[in-house]
Description:
mainly alpha
Amino acid sequence: MSYTQGSISSVRAWIPATANRLQRKQLVVRRHTRPLDWFGHRLLLGGAALGCYMIHGAYQLYDGRPEDLLWACHLAAALIGAGLLAASPAVNAVGTLWLCAGVPLWLLDLAGGAPFYPTSCLTHLVGLAVGLYACTRLGVPRGAWWMALAGLLALIGLSRALTPARANVNVAFAIYPGWETYFPSHPVYLMAMMLLAAVHFLVTGLILRHWLGLKREENP
Length: 220
């Protein structure tokens, strides 16, 4: 009887000890595999986003429109790719905020009869999807909205310096067609657009920080 009781006591002591060892092993495995998995995902997704920009850029160069490479929506995909490769929340957030504003405008432009280039889907749709996912892993900095605005202003200046006026890349030269009756001049139009962009970046940044911040807690 004493032998049986001793065996039962040994088994009872062995079960929780074994469970604790298994839990510790699982924690060690998670600590070693999660960062490695995310590192691989960063390289893959970052390369994909940059690849989208390069494919669209090659198409534009082949079609004789090199200036279109500087449109904010296309460059946004490149920023998202660079942000992932560098593990930079700020760079990724700027690209994502640009596309959050640019994709609806692109769709409205297409609905109004603008020409459709198939490779634009890569920079707009694939780029936005990758950027939003990256926000769940990298986060969204508090100052992302003003970084996006400052970057957009710099890009407009660069577009004015490097691209022809006829292309009106990033509306750097003229009021967007159809809006001329609402604004007395291009500077007034540009100031209004930058004000709207600032509000959009601020609100969208707050939404992304709240929604994607919750996602990060679920996927540490």
